[in-house]
Amino acid sequence: QGIAKKTCDVCGMLTGLHSVVIDVADLEVGVRDYARLLGVSPATVPDAPQAAPVATFVLSNMRLELRSPTACSTRLPASGQEGMAGLRFTLGQSPDASRVPGLVASPTVSIELVSELDAPAAPPALREGAPAARVRGLDHVVVATRDPERARRFFGEELGIRLALDRSFAERGLRLLFFRLGGITIEVASTLAEQSAAPGMDVFHGLAWKVAGIETLQARLRAAGLDVSELRAGHKPGTRVCSLREPVHGVPTLLIEHPPREGW
Length: 264
Prior knowledge:
Elements: H1 2-8, E1 14-23, H2 27-38, E2 54-58, E3 63-67, E4 83-91, E5 102-103, E6 111-115, E7 134-144, H3 148-158, E8 162-169, E9 174-181, E10 184-191, E11 203-212, H4 214-223, E12 232-233, E13 240-243, E14 253-257
Parallel strand pairs: 1-3, 4-6, 7-10, 11-14
Antiparallel strand pairs: 1-4, 2-3, 5-6, 7-11, 8-9, 9-10, 12-13, 13-14
């Protein structure tokens, strides 16, 4: 009852995915690696000893925030290891005082609501000599669950995010639920054989970045020493994908290029 009451307070009020928060063991190394992957420099980094150990990358449709283990500037709980720590959603302005920024009582992954006034700014312009092939924004974030019905109720009914797809793929042994908000998909994946009456906690299972010029980007990343897979057709017709063979600071990472007709 407590979860339902608190999350119903935000029904229909989310306007976008504000940011993905990733915990890294060493902030300097994390910034170096994600700057190399994304092809952009961080918009903010600590510039004084007393500054919060957080770095922020601003992309076209969201922010990526890296935290060191000592970061204390966020309500999202520390994950205790490298990897995704939580999602922040943008909360639209409302006269209802019960709809306020803060942690949501989530039965799935950690979620925080932030004010619409703190929505991502426009990404910085490409610097002279910057790579033409780069990550443009986030395509989707994957959450793994053993209780897809719980996830459907929470993301769809309680948070009010549009459910765009709910389909089982027997040949892959998966049930996939796609929740769409602000051009980004929250993909909830459930292995059909592992659905359980005692499902435990949901876990983050990776990020897929939307890119332009995937062949050039693949070559650039390989030249920088990253182990990138061969290009292959994506599940969505017309898309091409490749993946990082090793998680990037605990985050499985996919790169996806959409057909030109979709504006990428």
